[in-house]
Design brief:
The structure is a homotrimer.
Chain A lengths: L2 H18 L2 H5 L2 E11 L8 E7 L1 H11 L7 E15 L2 E15 L13 E2 L1 E18 L2 E11 L3 E2 L1
Parallel strand pairs in A: 1-7
Antiparallel strand pairs in A: 1-2, 3-4, 4-6, 6-7
């Protein structure tokens, strides 16, 4: 696999681990001492405001599994990324991506079945987050790992 | 063109054929005996539930042209894919992608023109589907074709 | 960097300049005499309707900075692209992409702080545009520049 493909696909695994709330898989994408910093971007002209920081795989795993809201019954999330800018220099790389998170909530199927005339997907999808990921990656024993991740949200966050 | 680019672009042609309800173009992306299986993913922890299966180009063409709702006047759909994971091994490849489908419905322009002060796009865009595509591809006489496609929906589907 | 990566990333810079309303950065992605044509796609079966045309970097810079609505306080936009079809032939290339634009509007934080129980992103994200970009690029002194851009909107536009 080309370096470019390998580097891009770290992000593809990241979003799946995010949506599964899978802390162990997420942590394994990072170096042991990786740092995640989370900002509110305060558009259009403000200074980014630091909201939080995570250091190390254990903290990243915990935040993935427990800091995000658990999915309700028939609920899921979809973390979509676009507009990747990839820069590779030997064993180091930067990936800058735009992201959006959607919540997905299925309707409960009535005991009598879907109503007459119902067709297609039953439920709602709502965009809830938009922002930018900046990943710095390093190749360790042939595998690309995230050394730092900067998340900049375009919406303010309440905790 | 690199294999990786060629393999990825099958998906880019797939989504355009989907949005145009173009059965002939869609069928030509698949091998003659291709199989499409459609599941409800039943998040977060359920077993995927088989909703339907299509075998062969004729069935795929018919489903593309007639099984999906036709677009109304001023209506369209936008099938967006993200987070591709591509694996190529000789003449075989797998592409795993996240997808979302949006319906796009334009407003009717009043005979007197758009209202004073109206600016920008006039209409509504609604996310209706979210899920995962897993394509197995095979290279036949230099062209990458889809041999199997597994669609997993994150929302339940009524028929 | 591979040609393919370089060509794709022009689009990644385009969407960021779009969302920042950054006319100078946007204009620098184009050749001096570049042409942008904007159409309403009139789905599903109509003829594309020409809505407007821009010629040259100065016109492109002005349109980027002033023709699009300025962002309000706590407002931003997210121009997401997907489904790229890339074709490179020597020093010329074509990139066809699907796009969607979302408006992002943050809630004002109350003086007393977010309400008890509030969690996550505070604000709304609304999809407002969907369509297709077709870029023709040319390599000039090692740099890929957009020579023409055709924008086809899936929704009618009011001005």
């Amino acid at each position: 696999m080309s370096d470019k493909l390998a580097v891009q696909q770290v992000l593809a695994h990241y979003v799946r681990a995010h949506d599964r709330r899978d802390g162990a898989t997420m942590a394994a994408l990072f170096t042991p001492q990786a740092r995640v910093t989370i900002f509110y971007n305060n558009p259009p002209h403000g200074e980014p405001e630091l909201l939080g920081e995570l250091v190390g795989r254990e903290a990243i795993a915990q935040a993935t599994a427990h800091m995000m809201k658990p999915h309700p019954a028939r609920g899921w999330s979809h973390n979509a990324t676009d507009g990747l800018i990839v820069d590779i220099d030997g064993d180091r790389a930067t990936v800058d991506a735009q992201f959006m998170v959607f919540t997905v909530l299925g309707d409960a199927k009535p005991a009598s079945g879907w109503p007459a005339g119902a067709a297609g997907a039953m439920g709602t999808i709502t965009p809830i987050e938009s922002g930018y990921y900046t990943q710095k990656l390093v190749r360790v024993e042939g595998q690309w790992l995230i050394e730092s991740l900067r998340v900049r949200h375009n919406l303010p966050m309440a905790f």
